[in-house]
């Protein structure tokens, strides 16, 4: 029960970060928003880890894999923050939900896991959902929609890398390492797009990072009490608050095609998760 509550808290909180990021992206370059997310995440999480989790503050055993994982999460963040600066929160998040589908594909290719007809059918079902949302040939495909898809693909590589890392490094150190790496990289890029934030924007960037750090901390804690595959379907709960925030603050509400595509993608992800849980039991 602890795992479910913590997991739901995390997925209910993350849309707040997305909403703040979308609002800030209307006032400044999205890369500056990404910088705020990573920089203040480090300022918040690094002292907390050093004070309360010092025993986990060690050098990673597999440095190259940690770098690869950090790059995939960094790309995922950039793509998602760019997409929500252009299109609705609901559409961007729904298209990024292809992550479980690509995890299945990558598991077969990179991890050499056996993928049966049921899981390939779920992948095909999810692909239909993506086609319904994008509607190629009917609606002009824009870069923001493709960025949302790339978010899911990058995040899938991130999940695969994380799977490999579980046998080497602890999750607390991994979270800190990811934040530090992202902050360093974006700090080299952001000066080319920098506009000095006002006090309100500074506060919102700090709030964005604090919310994101809190949500990821809840995710880590939830994984201490239950297996990841059993909690995976709860990730789709994120769309609820995402739609509410998008509608209330930005006037965006999903149309019938987005709801239909969401149904296919979510059904695909839940089916894959159920199959994983059954295999473990």
Could you write a compact summary of the structure shown?
With 281 residues, the protein is mostly helical.
Question: Please, could you describe this protein's structure?
Answer:
The chain has helices spanning 2-25, 30-52, 63-84, 89-96, 99-109, 117-134, 143-165, 171-189, 199-225, 228-231, 238-250, 256-280. With 281 residues, the protein is mainly alpha-helical. It has one domain (2-280). Helix 5 (99-109) crosses helix 7 (143-165). The radius of gyration is 18 Å and the shape is globular. The model has no long low-confidence stretch (mean pLDDT 80).
What structural class do you assign from the helix and strand content? mainly alpha
* Tertiary shape: globular
Per DSSP, the total helix count is 12
Major sheet size, sense and barrel closure = none
Number of structurally distinct domains: 1
Strand content: under 5%
Helix-residue proportion: over 70%
By DSSP, the count of extended strands is: 0
- Unreliable stretches (pLDDT < 50, length at least 5) are none
Pick out its properties:
281 residues, mainly alpha, 12 helices, 77% helix
Write the SSE topology:
Layout: H1 2-25, H2 30-52, H3 63-84, H4 89-96, H5 99-109, H6 117-134, H7 143-165, H8 171-189, H9 199-225, H10 228-231, H11 238-250, H12 256-280
């Amino acid at each position: 029960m602890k795992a479910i509550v913590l997991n739901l808290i995390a997925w209910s909180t993350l849309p707040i970060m997305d909403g703040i990021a979308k609002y800030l992206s209307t006032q400044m370059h999205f890369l500056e928003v990404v910088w705020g997310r990573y920089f203040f995440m480090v300022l918040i999480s690094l002292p907390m880890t050093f004070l309360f989790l010092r025993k986990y503050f060690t050098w990673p055993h597999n440095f190259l894999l940690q770098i690869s994982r950090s790059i995939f999460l960094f790309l995922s963040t950039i793509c998602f923050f760019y997409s929500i600066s252009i299109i609705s929160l609901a559409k961007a998040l729904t298209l990024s939900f292809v992550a479980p589908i690509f995890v299945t594909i990558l598991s077969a290719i990179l991890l050499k896991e056996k993928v049966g007809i049921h899981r390939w059918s779920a992948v095909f079902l999810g692909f239909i959902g993506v086609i319904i949302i994008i509607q190629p040939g009917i609606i002009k495909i824009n870069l923001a929609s493709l960025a949302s898809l790339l978010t899911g693909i990058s995040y899938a590589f991130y999940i695969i890398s994380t799977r490999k890392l579980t046998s080497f490094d602890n999750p607390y150190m991994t979270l800190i390492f990811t934040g530090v790496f992202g902050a360093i990289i974006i700090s080299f890029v952001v000066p080319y797009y920098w506009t000095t934030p006002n006090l309100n924007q500074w506060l919102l960037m700090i709030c964005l990072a604090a919310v994101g750090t809190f949500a990821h901390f809840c995710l880590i804690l939830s994984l201490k009490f239950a297996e990841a595959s059993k909690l995976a379907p709860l990730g789709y709960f994120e769309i609820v608050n995402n739609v509410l925030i998008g509608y209330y603050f930005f006037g965006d509400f999903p149309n019938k095609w987005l709801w239909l595509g969401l149904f296919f993608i979510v059904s695909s992800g839940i089916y894959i998760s159920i199959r994983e849980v059954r295999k473990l039991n």
